[in-house]
Amino acid sequence: MTETTDQANELARQLSDILDQEFEVLRVQDLDKFEALQPIKNELLTELTRLAPPAHEVQTLPQWQGFRETMIACRDAHRRNAVLMQRKLEAIRGTLQSLRLEDPSSSVEVYDRLGHVSRFSRNSGYSDA
Q: Is 78 exposed, middle or buried (0-12, 13-18, 19+ CB in 10 A)?
């Protein structure tokens, strides 16, 4: 049982490290590195699921106390990363919204579906009719 607990504790520490790395790459918006971390994180989670006993044992058996504490820290780090991602998405949505709500008399250059720059004017469309 000690060997299993030791393995689970080591994997939990590795997961904690991955979540910290994930936070850093999200902070600097390095999406390639973020994507590269995902398979590693998923492998760790799969292995932890295989090794760890049922939740009631993790909560009650003293030999799993350190594992439980590390996993609680991992949960909190995951939530922190999710909040950061949500804030980044909100900032992007705000930027896009500001482009849509631009002064009606001004025109803005935007990319069309083919990736070409086109002029966008709020005056065109139904208001011209």
A: middle
